[in-house]
Amino acid sequence: MKPEPGLELQGRYQLVERIALGGMGEVWRATDLRSGRAVAAKILRPELAGDEIFLSRLRAEAANSRGLRHPNLAVVLDSGERRGSGWIVMELVQGRALSDILDERGTMAPEEILPILAQVARALQVVHDSGVVHRDIKPSNILINREGLAKLTDFGISMGVNQRPMTATGMVMGTAQYLAPEQAMGNMATPSGDLYALGVIAYEALAGHRPFTGSTQVDIAFAHVNQPVPPLPDHLPPEVREVVMELLSKKPADRPRSARELARRLDRIVVNLPAESWDPRETPTWASTGRTTPVAAPGGGTQETTTDAERTPASAAAVGPREQPTATPSTRTVPAVDRTRAAVAAAPATARASTRHASGKERFGLPAGTIRILVIILILLVLLVTTGTLASAHPGASRSHALVSTTSSKEAL
Q1: Of 272, 299, 325, which one is at a domain's C-terminal end?
Q2: CATH number, domain at 151?
Q3: What EC number(s) are associated with this protein in UniProt (predicted)?
Q4: Distance of alpha carbon 272 from its chain centroid, rounded?
Q5: How far apart are alpha carbons 410 and 150 in whole angstroms?
Q6: The one catalytic residue among 32, 129, 136, 154
């Protein structure tokens, strides 16, 4: 079966145009005739049709990637075979490969490449949790869509759990430039090897070249095993250099324990990177956000100064995109507060108010407790005077009543 425009796969997917060519297959833009959506179809190259080894690899790719769901994975939708050829239908990613971006730009800023690697690491965690090792992590297999979302693709040489090896003993699978040392020695591929490949991508994007080169693929593979990793440029943040060097450790045990741990670590580094744009032709300040730099105080000693990332939006907007900010120390002490405190201390005591509200300590020059006692005593005195008045009024009324009764009796006689 020769792929060509108009060809239908399974009577459902119609080929439109070829968009990529790989070592094992061709990638075509196709239309799903049922839903009308655009999809990508990876078809075995015509010269490999009928080759059972390549057909087996295509089946393994479909099996290892089917069922994997993650925002940073290109979803596999369908697969099939016909006349000695096979295909895989997957999500069509509208964007560019990371390899094209690196070829065009040379280098990428840490705040640009680290979020991409963190996304790929999250996708790899899903892959590893399913028991699959990708084995071919490289920039051309990482697609960046129009929204900046990274998508990991191409499980052509992936290895699944209990999968029968499809390579001869001692044969190495993978791209030499991104091959982990243990895989270059012919050992079994592990998830740690995928993390090593991410370290090579990070090094390439930050330094503008890969850490190891050679005249042949074998020379490059053995350079990963025997040669020390060249240091990254000094202008990069220390935490960025540290995580890349850990990823490129010769021993798998010295690398991050999992892709999830790596993603979280990269996220923390990105959060602490400064907000200003990075220009490789200049030497930027890589002080982390919120940190302070001790400087010599005018009268001796040290004082904390705010970093560039602590500037207010108004002051940050005043610095141009290519202009280096001046190192003007701005102390954390607020002069206005000091002047206010001094004025309060110098104010005369007579100017202060002598009365306060109920929760205060003074009223009319007396403590609040004394005022309460005096009020209680006054209330008691009023009650005593009132009680005495009522008691004296009652006997008088009785004598008057008796007098009236006697007078009435005499008048009756």
Answers
A1: 272
A2: 1.10.510.10
A3: 2.7.11.1
A4: 10
A5: 126
A6: 136
